[in-house]
Amino acid sequence: MKTELKAKFLQHILDKKKDEQGFTLIELLVVIIIIGILSAIALPSFLNQANKAKQSEAKTIVGSMNRAQQAYYLENGKFAEASDEAESQATFGKLGLGVRTETENYKYLIKGGTNLTTSQSQLVTADAPLKVYIGGVGVSVVSDTSEATTIALLCESELPGNVADAKDGTDVFTTTEISTDGSTAAVCPTGYVSLSK
Questions:
Q1: How many folded domains does the chain comprise?
Q2: Is there a domain that residue 156 lies in?
Q3: Do residues 108 and 121 make contact, with C-beta atoms less than 8 angstroms apart?
Q4: For residue 152, what are the CA distances in angstroms to 1, 32, 62, 88, 95?
């Protein structure tokens, strides 16, 4: 009879455990803490990726502006030029890029003249810590052979936010350096690093 009693007791305990299923408060707190730690690690990384995507837009458009300026120079013997912001928007259409001059995060401008032109992005909103991009296209002449070619340069601001040169509209590609073959090349202004290879 003892074995029957043991069997009934075990059956009673098993039935009771089935009725009491659920999570304890400690188990719930541990799960909430783990979720909090994971989100604290993942959120900054996610926000950084969102900013990189926004900056990628500016890099792509300024790079496209550089290539369009080179094509325009080959067809017309001069760069598409603009002296102020209103003229820049009209000149932008001459390049045939098919993109807007102002997006949610950036405004795109063209400046410059016959031998050198700059394309740049200016921050429209300061909601996110975004970097500014400046592109430049010029004519490089090799002194030994007098051979001319167009050169392009893409520069990224070292720090997020509008850099003074991009904001006040000064010509940023007046500085050039002479390479070993005697050709001249544009140099990024102070506060920028070159992305060109």
A1: 1
A2: yes
A3: yes
A4: 97, 53, 11, 19, 15
Residue at 7 is within a domain = no
Domain range for 68:
36-194
Token representation of residue 126: 């300061």
φ, ψ for residue 22, nearest 5 deg: 155, 180
**Amino acid (one-letter) located at 45:** S
How do residues 155-194 score in pLDDT, each as one tens digit? 888 888 765 545 444 444 544 554 545 555 667 777 888 8
Structure confidence by residue, pLDDT tens digits, 95-124: 888 888 888 888 888 877 656 667 777 777
Q: How far apart are the first and last CA of the chain?
A: 90
Q: Hey, how many other C-beta atoms are within 10 angstroms of the C-beta on 11?
A: 10
- Judge if pTM exceeds 0.85: no
9 lies in a domain? no
